[in-house]
Specification:
By secondary structure, this protein is of the alpha+beta class. It is built from 5 helices and 6 strands; from the N terminus they run H-H-E-E-E-E-H-H-E-E-H. It has a single domain, classed as Aspartate Aminotransferase, domain 1, CATH 3.90.1150.200. Strands 1-2-3-4-6-5 form a 6-stranded antiparallel beta sheet. The two termini are about 25 Å apart.
């Protein structure tokens, strides 16, 4: 799954969402440099040792961080309380990137879960 698929996805996202998601992409790769980039269910995703550990999506009124687990967000309920969310997605404004420390915590929780 080439990273160019994520490039193509981002090219179709209007600003400022494109820049915000590109920053999230760079944050994920800085935290997990061995992550493979590609698509999962038609959305940008990051895999580590064969497991999808994160993803993101753009919508008209918000962006979403996707942990690819139904339990990661509930495990970090204090850290994610300021954001709207569903069981499997954390919603954030199109012009405000997620804090790096929050992304780190989300990734750590998912990686620990995926690689037990």
């Amino acid at each position: 799954m080439p990273a160019s698929e994520i490039d193509a996805y981002l090219a179709g996202v209007e600003e400022p969402g494109r820049t915000t998601l590109q920053q999230l992409r760079e944050t994920i790769l800085a935290i997990v440099p061995d992550a493979e980039q590609g698509m999962s269910y038609g959305l940008p995703a990051f895999r580590l040792a064969g497991e999808t550990i994160a993803g993101f999506a753009a919508f008209k009124r918000h962006l979403s961080y996707l942990p690819h687990s139904g339990s990661v967000l509930s495990k970090l309920s204090k850290e994610t309380a300021a954001y709207e969310q569903t069981k499997g997605s954390l919603h954030f404004p199109i012009d405000q990137p997620l804090p790096e420390e929050l992304v780190r915590r989300l990734l750590e929780a998912r990686i620990a879960q995926a690689h037990r």
